[in-house]
Amino acid sequence: MTAYTRPLAVLPPADASPASDEDWDAPTLLTLPNPRKLTTSIRATAQVFQDPRSAALLDRIRMVAPSDANVLIIGETGTGKELIARHVHDLSRRSGKPFVAVNCGAFSESLVESELFGHEKGAFTGAFSAKTGWFEAANGGTLFLDEIGDLPLSIQVKLLRVLQEREVVRLGSRKSVPIDVRVVAATNVRLQDAVAAGNFREDLFYRLHVVHLALPTLRERPGDILPLARHFIEEYRQRLGYGPVGLDASAEHKLSEHAWPGNIRELENVIHHALLICQHGMLGAEHLHLSSLNIQRRPPEGEARPGATPQQALETVLRDLFNEPNEQLFEQIEDTVMRTAFEFCHRNQVQAAKLLGISRNVLRSRLIKSREITALK
């Protein structure tokens, strides 16, 4: 199951002319190895970093990747969690070692222990020979555990021990095997909620949550939509044997306005279908068959009602705060705004200050005062 990420590529727009190439700011592009073999997968096969939120995420990855710290990636299905995990691996000192990706929800509860930790011959019915687990397969490199929240509690206990002791014991064996593996885990649910519900171990959560990478949805980073569309146009028109294909203004507008509930994977499918019905080397709005699916996710208790605008939600929260007299209310609100912007920008002070329209020095002094950072940073 070992796979290797191909080098980063930078692609121009599919309809770019020599004159327009100079004006176009080429984004950084990540792709899975052998993406053509994964066309039936629900995972994203490409990721770009053109939007400011994506650029801030890329900067954070570059900072944390060289360490051996465990990483927890949170994002909706189709946002490119495996691509980010592979990029973390490629930027680490383990880049020349195996990268092993495992979907924790793909195995039955009776088999997941054997898959992760291995088994000896005769350990259970059907174990006709010994088998190494994914931890041993990834030894020296990185193990990507996708959908970590699907692991049964009994396996979570054993996973925690492996992370603490840095050794595995195969099923049916009493001998431990030392391992040197960096774990990158991913989930599309809030593990904090799973912990509160008793479905995920709190100690394992903190063991995995050394570095936290939150992947924005495609609708939250609109600057990535058109670069990704151009990438998929180039990818699929080559597969179909087409000549150059471009996007007209109506198509660009339609793509930019869509909510993309299926994220990058949905965009890829839309472009693929559009190319199949396009006849004249130019994709228009009429070729883009967008999903009308409107996914309404129930917000956690205490959040604004569905359909409320961000401004309306903020006004609702402020009214609640005004009902509770507090002499330091304004200062606390300011601190909350600055800390939230800081986290939103993946703890990048320059990006957060730019987002708020204030100087970095002002932001820095408030973050120090609120003990969000130390004066030495």
Quick overview:
41% of the residues lie in helices and 11% in strands.
Describe this structure in words.
The protein has 377 residues and is α/β, with parallel strands linked by helices. It has 15 helices and 12 strands. The chain has helices spanning 18-21, 52-64, 81-90, 109-117, 134-137, 153-165, 191-196, 202-208, 225-240, 249-257, 263-277, 310-322, 329-344, 349-356, 360-369, and strands spanning 2-3, 29-31, 46-48, 71-74, 99-103, 142-146, 167-169, 176-178, 182-187, 211-214, 246-247, 282-283. The strands form 4 sheets. A 6-stranded mixed β-sheet has the order 1-5-6-9-4-10. A two-stranded antiparallel ribbon has the order 2-3. A hairpin with a 6-residue loop joins strand 7 (167-169) and strand 8 (176-178). Helix 9 packs across helix 11, helix 13 crosses helix 14 (349-356) and helix 14 (349-356) crosses helix 15. The longest helix is centred in the middle third of the chain and has 16 residues, at 225-240. The radius of gyration is 23 Å and the shape is globular. Mean pLDDT is 82; it is low at 1-24 and 295-306.
